[in-house]
Design a protein that fits this description.
This protein is α+β, with helices and mostly antiparallel strands.
């Protein structure tokens, strides 16, 4: 749940570390909620830094991942990327 990581910069460090520990050809996949008023209400008094699915693919690529896919559906998105 990337939205529980306090800042976008720390999220990016997490992505870089995930890539570092994967073996070549390894996959990194997951899903998260899309930022919304309801999602924010659920996280009152909790760490909440929503991830924008429209830019998340570029963030994965910047962390060194390849074959990046990000698919958005109602209220959430899923992603998959590999270490080249």
């Amino acid at each position: 749940m990337l939205h529980h990581v306090p800042t976008a910069a720390l999220q990016d460090r997490l992505l870089a570390e995930a890539r570092r520990v994967l073996r070549p050809g390894g996959a990194f996949a997951g899903f998260d909620g899309v930022g919304s008023f309801l999602f924010r209400l659920i996280h009152l008094n909790d760490t909440y830094t929503p991830v924008n699915p429209a830019t998340f693919g570029r963030r994965l690529e910047a962390a060194g991942f390849a074959a990046v896919t990000v698919e958005r559906s109602w209220g959430r998105f899923r992603f998959r990327a590999t270490r080249a």
